Amino acid sequence: MRNLSVVTEFVLLGIPHTEGLETMLFVLFLSFYIFTLMGNLLILLAIISSTRLHTPMYFFLCKLSIFDIFFPSVSSPKMLFYLSGNSRAISYGGCVSQLFFYHFLGCTECFLYTVMAYDRFVAICFPLRYTIIMSHRVCAILAAGTSFFGCIQATFLTTLTFQLPYCGPNEVDYYFCDIPVMLKLACADTSALEMVGFISVGLMPLSCFLLILTSYSCIVHSILQIRSTEGRRRAFSTCSAHLMAILLSFMPVVLIYLQPTPNPWLNATVQVLNNLVTPMLNPLIYSLRNKDVKYSLRKVLQQVAFLPEK
Q: What Gene Ontology cellular-component terms does the record carry (predicted)?
């Protein structure tokens, strides 16, 4: 019989092929992380402080901002910790937590984008019934539902990954614990689990994307029926911001999890963009394309910095 020792901790090797760039990456990623936290916090304050933004669309945007604060916080603090010269070790439990919360927050955001597309569909295609259909109760159920199904998906993927035995090498060739790199370290045949994970991770975003595509097909058809040029412009402006955020969120998933032959360096680069850059850009996308948010943000900044009103 082989004497197999159980792994109690893993070592994060970081982004492949970046040896000697730790200081530069630390400054760059810390800047991204700070801007992400500040931008989403400002969006939250702008929505909470303005009664005119207390509508279903901004309620879901508020939840998106909360998740955009937590999403990069899953992997960034540990990455910044070891980039500053500290230990790269992470406990077994810490690795499990990283993988679970990464997929919980990511899946929840995916469902949330779908709900936001449905909200825009109702607002533009059924404007007279909008307040009835998107009542406070319905919004609360939809918001809770995104987190519930995100939790189920994350629990399934985490259980699938860590029910395998880890008894040999413990060096994770990545900057955080994710499914593809963890399966490589397992002391068992992972081919069947890789296929199940591939289907699960691929099917969920694909289903959401098809629902979003259906919603926006109906939205575009309805917008083209609007006779007012100003009405069409406002509708397109709101929807284009949402579509831009969706593309920034969904494209990394396709590149990372659905490519036939994984490329570690490409995966890490895309993952960093997905973890840090996309949550940082979301506040800009939604504020720059929306007069109501810009007005509320200006009011918040004036109160914080005591700027004179214009």
A: plasma membrane
Distance CA 283, CA 114 (A): 18
Q: Where are the beta strands (DSSP E) in 34-125?
A: 89-91
pLDDT in tens, 47-79: 888 888 888 988 998 999 999 999 999 999 999
Contact 170, 185 (CB under 8 A): yes
265 contacts: CB under 8 Å, gap ≥ 6 = 15, 16, 17
For residue 83, which of 272, 280, 274, 273 has the smallest C-alpha distance?
272
DSSP at 172: E
Hunting for tokens 């927050």 — which residue is that?
105
Coarse DSSP helix, strand, coil percentages of the chain, rounded to the nearest 5 percent: 75, 5, 20
Q: How far apart are CA 33 and CA 46, in angstroms?
A: 20
Nearest to 59 by CA among 73, 43, 70: 43
Question: Could you give all domains of the chain from N- to C-terminal order, each with its CATH number?
Answer: 9-306 (1.20.1070.10)
Identify the residue whose tokens are 């199940």: 196
The answer to whether the CB of 283 falls within 8 A of the CB of 65 is yes
**Mean pLDDT per 10-residue segment, the chain (310 residues):** 66 83 90 91 87 88 92 92 90 94 92 92 90 93 95 92 86 86 85 73 82 88 76 70 76 67 70 83 74 77 61
Identify the burial level of 307 via C-beta atoms within 10 angstroms of its C-beta, where 0-12 means exposed, 13-18 middle and 19 or more buried. Answer: exposed
Q: Say which residue the tokens 């504020």 belong to.
A: 287
